[in-house]
Amino acid sequence: MKELECRNWYMRVVMEYDQKILPCSMTASLVKFFMKSAITTLFGEISSAFPLDILKFDEESKEVIIRVPKDNYAKVRAALTLCSATMLEGAIIPIIYTVEQASSCLISLDGPQKQLA
């Protein structure tokens, strides 16, 4: 039986930021800009050129589901984990990313989550 090769990794990420500091409301395209900025800061322009797709963004819960190529998963996770702020229109915007789940299968992100005590 042939095994399916996964080409992408999916991550459920929760963002912590203060909406009052932002010059506009947070949107999926702004989330993508902030995430790409975090990758660029840590790894440079070339590393941030790979695809990063925002599959879902919930402004109320500040939860994001992203898709990245499997070869770039470690870089994205490292950049999001280490990022504490980004620049927007000359202002420093504090943003903290918490990767809650990661999987090579999108549907597994919908399953039960383990809660740490």
UniProtKB/TrEMBL annotation:
One GO biological process term: tRNA 5'-leader removal
InterPro entries named among the record's database cross-references: Pop8-like_dom, Rnp2-like_sf
Annotated GO CC locations: multimeric ribonuclease P complex; nucleolus
Ribonucleases P/MRP subunit Pop8-like domain: residues covered: 29-81
MF GO annotations: ribonuclease P RNA binding
Pfam families: Pop8 (PF20976)
Keywords tagged on the record: tRNA processing
Lineage top rank: taxon: Eukaryota
SUPFAM superfamilies for the chain: Rnp2-like
Protein name (record): Ribonucleases P/MRP subunit Pop8-like domain-containing protein
Record organism: Halocaridina rubra
